[in-house]
Amino acid sequence: MSRRTSRPRGTAAPRITSASPCPCGLPAVYGECCGRFHSCGAAAPTCEALMRSRYAAFVVQDAAYLLRTWHPETRPPGVDFDPGMRWVRLEILDTTEGSAFHSTGTVTFRAHYTDDGRPDSLHEKSRFVRHEGAWVYTTGVFVD
Ligand SMILES: [Zn+2]
Q1: What is the DSSP letter of 45?
Q2: What's the gap in Å between 34 CA and the centre of ligand 1?
Q3: Which of 15, 54, 62, 119 is 20 to 30 A (C-alpha) from 30?
C-alpha cells in the first residue's frame, strides 16, 4: 500500500491494544497477530502476513514499521497518516509465491476505508521481495 494523501497534522490513532481484535482481519488478537511483527521485531514469514501487518500498521499508525518493511529503493522519506482516513477492512484477493520458499511474491487486495466519512476502497497488487532475509514491500499497482 503506497497511496497516501497529505493533509496537515495527524490525529491520534484509533486505540488498539494487544487484546483488541487484529485490524488485519484474521481471527486473532492484535498482540498475537500483527502486533508481534510491529513491536517485537518478528519477521512476517510470508508476503500475505507482511501485507496484513502493513495494513494493520496503517490502522495503528506505526510509521516506523511501514518504513522498515519498505524496500530501501522505493521507501519514501516518511509516512504521513491522513487524519480524515479511517481504514475499515482488508480483503486479500489473491497471492502469488511469497512463501518461505520464495524470494518474490505478490498480494492483490482490497482495503476498505472511509475518507471524511465517505466509503471507498483501494484495490492494489503489491509486490514484495526478500531483502536481507526478510520480506519487504517494493511497489504496488492500482488494479482499478
Ligand atoms: Zn493481524
Answers
A1: S
A2: 4
A3: 119
Cβ neighbours, 10 Å, residue 53:
26
pLDDT tens by residue, 5-63: 544 444 556 689 999 999 999 999 999 999 999 997 789 999 999 999 999 999 999 99
pLDDT tens-digit profile of 59-98? 999 999 999 999 999 999 999 999 999 999 999 999 999 9
CB-based contact 31:18 (threshold 8 Å): yes
| Alpha-carbon distances, residue 56 vs 8, 73, 102, 132 (angstroms) | 22, 23, 23, 23
Q: CB–CB of 34/17 below 8 Å?
A: no
Distance (Å, whole) CA 67 – CA 95: 22
Cα of 111 from ligand 1 centre, angstroms: 14
